[in-house]
Amino acid sequence: MDFDALFQSQLDNLKQEGNYRIFAELERKAGQFPRAKCHNDDAPDDVTVWCSNDYLGMGQHPMVARAMKDAIDACGAGAGGTRNISGTNHAHKCLEAELADLHGKESALLFTSGYVSNWTVLSTLGSRLPDCVILSDALNHASMIEGIRHSRANKVIWKHNDPEDLDRKLACLPANAPKIVAFESVYSMDGDICPMQEIVEVAEQHGAMTYLDEVHAVGLYGPRGGGVSERENLAHRITLIEGTLGKAFGVLGGYITGSEALCDFMRSFASGFIFTTALPPAVAAAAQTSIAYLKQSGKERELHRERVDYLRKRLDQEGIPHMKNPSHIIPVMIKDPVKCRVLADILMQDYGIYVQPINYPTVPKGTERLRFTPSPLHSIEDIEHLVMALKTLWKQCAIAHQVA
Ligand SMILES: *Cc1c(COP(=O)(O)O)cnc(C)c1O
């Protein structure tokens, strides 16, 4: 059996469709965010990153880096085991307390990543609660979809951000079955935000538990960075809030927060929590520093919002169509995988602007896009440079000027 030929034929298909993924090989430079060195042959040495999920540049914040270095000096590189067998470090418990406080919950539990937390928690809930039904928003992240699938629980998909459809679907289910409504606050590809209050009310009326992914909102929204649920004063009405330490907090890891019993249940039954090495204590210490800092500092969030508004305004002025949404994510629709890749290549090669083309399967075919995430550390000059480049390319490529 020629396995490589089997692999290669599927890769060739991807290439033919224009959906083959090419990674930019970056070397981030501490203190110079959003600048990075680029190691790809056909790119300039120095590029400006326009698609980072390190939304506030906290991954390079001196206090965060210092906390990580100090923890390495104090505790060494690794955790030393799974959480169960010698791997629970003091830094993990401190971080869990910080997270529980961030969301106003009794308890929190750490995972290796946000992906792992969604996957393992939803699969554990769905498989351990008898007759459980999981109601999943149609645009939920792959990590939730895979976790739900693995649970083998009954799954009902409700129309994206549509509380009325959710209501109808909940009404069809047996009154005594445990129901879980799984959704996100900020959807990262379109940048739209869920109608959280309506969803929570519908779930409450049907006695359903709410599972909220705040991955693209923690650190960014709410007076202390507790996410959209904090901003809308709804956190106390949500059963489980899940988040990441890898995006706005700038480090690595995932977590859930909720009741003492819920977190203890996951600690005791969730395979993806139990049978894996704990995060390095230095990672936990750095993440805790980042969270604690953003709880009491609003200036990064404020400047972030200003930069996002400014880029939107400039795109409008130059007639470059971008998707309107209430978040910090600015998608510029290209609607063709090959064009999307070509535009990204030119931006990189001729302008030193790095934006990753977003193609299928991350988004549906025909909705390919460039997705810009301005940070507080992108200067006005950076934004003007980007707008000028897009303006020039728009003229050259004559891409349809309709707004998505
Ligand atoms: C990125 C992402 C995750 C996964 O988080 P990681 O910490 O990067 O693994 C989960 N949910 C959503 C909506 C995401 O975009």
Feature tags:
binds pyridoxal-5'-phosphate; 404 residues; seven-stranded mixed β-sheet; four-stranded mixed β-sheet; 15 helices
Outline the fold blueprint:
Blueprint (H helix, E strand, L loop, with lengths): L2 H15 L8 E3 L6 E4 L7 E4 L12 H14 L7 H5 L2 H13 L4 E5 L2 H15 L4 E5 L4 H10 L2 E5 L4 H9 L7 E6 L11 H10 L3 E5 L14 H4 L8 E5 L9 E5 L1 H10 L1 H4 L6 H16 L2 H19 L12 E4 L3 H15 L1 E2 L2 E2 L10 E4 L7 H18 L7
Parallel strand pairs: 3-12, 5-6, 5-7, 7-8, 8-9
Antiparallel strand pairs: 1-2, 2-3, 4-10, 9-10, 11-14, 13-14
Bound molecules: pyridoxal-5'-phosphate.
The site of pyridoxal-5'-phosphate has 14 residues, from helix 5.
Structure summary:
By secondary structure, the protein is an alpha/beta fold. It contains 15 helices and 14 strands. Bound molecules: pyridoxal-5'-phosphate.
Question: What does this molecule look like?
Answer:
The structure is a single chain. With 404 residues, the chain is of the alpha/beta class. The protein is 44% helix and 15% strand. The chain has 15 helices and 14 strands. Helix 6 (142-151) links the parallel strand 5 and strand 6 (154-158). Helix 5 (114-128) packs parallel to helix 6 and helix 13 (299-317) runs parallel beside helix 15. It is globular and about 60 Å long. The protein starts with a helix and ends in a 7-residue tail after the last helix. The structure holds pyridoxal-5'-phosphate.
